[in-house]
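Lab notebook: predicted structure, single chain.

Context: the supervisor wants predicted structures on file for every construct in the current expression panel, including those that have not yet been purified. This is the next one on the list. No modifications to the sequence; it matches the entry in the shared construct table.
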Amino acid sequence: MGPVAGAVGRFLVTLALTYLGLLAITFCIGRLIPVDPALAIVGDRAPEHVVRRVREELGLNLPIWRQFLIYLGNIARGDFGISTLSSNPVMTDIRRAFPATLELATLGTIIGAGIGIPLGVIAAVRRGGLADQLVRVMGLVGYSVPIFWLGLMALLVFYARLGWVAGPGRIDIAYEYTLTPVTGILLFDAAMAGEWEAFANVFSHLILPASLLGYFSLAYISRMTRSFMLNELAQEYVVAARAKGLSEARIVWRHALRNAAVPLVTVVALSYAGLLEGSVLTETVFTWPGIGLYITNSLQNADMNGVLGGTIVVGSVFIGLNLLSDLLYRLLDPRTRAR
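Prediction complete. Output recorded below exactly as produced.
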């Protein structure tokens, strides 16, 4: 039990320090940005005594270290403050917005990993060939083309010109009030309610932005898969397997890919976290009511409670996925458990 207890203790200490660092950074951002929270609440034309009273109620007249302790206490209770944009508790707004981002990023990751991993394997097996060159060009375009431009072009072609998909937004207004949200993930909610017309409408809105995010995820995942597979195909066990007469397909897909899957877990997890936190431009272009659009609107309206609350939630998800990928890495690779 000694090594296990030590590993659990180190894990908890790492988690606490990482989260404390995240909170410290968000607190500093809130204090360094030239936006007075009191003025954001009462307005620029409010009398001085009103502004002073609001500052006292918010604790802005206290020493900075006491403000930070109060900030930590509020976050521990799940109190991110009141949004000056919506007049709702920030946590209420985030609970409404985050499922939309979760749905979008999850489908994008499924597309990116489902296509990117096989493409990376094929590129590694046919190194220097046409397939390898095509995969590398796809990756280069994915890294180079601005996502907002690609989103606008996709809307112009597939929505405005061809009419293959629904336009911006998450669901048509005709279904918005007939579908009762339960989980906030509208595909699940529509399927559980048996509202298949609403399901088709939600999917039609979702597929284009999810495919766009999936393409950028694909560019990263296929590149890393190719690199991992090239390393595995150069190992001695692959030479031995070929000498034994095993088929090339079995060597590649059952042996080499299985060993490459260990670091790929981390790659896919980081890609998923990146889509959860980095879909701001995509959500803005497609008017997708997720956490990215919420943070953008809050920032444009000087709603720092909303900005910091959304940043903390996204950072917490990123930390959680990093720790989960590390745990899966240890479970899949026995060598890491022996250290």
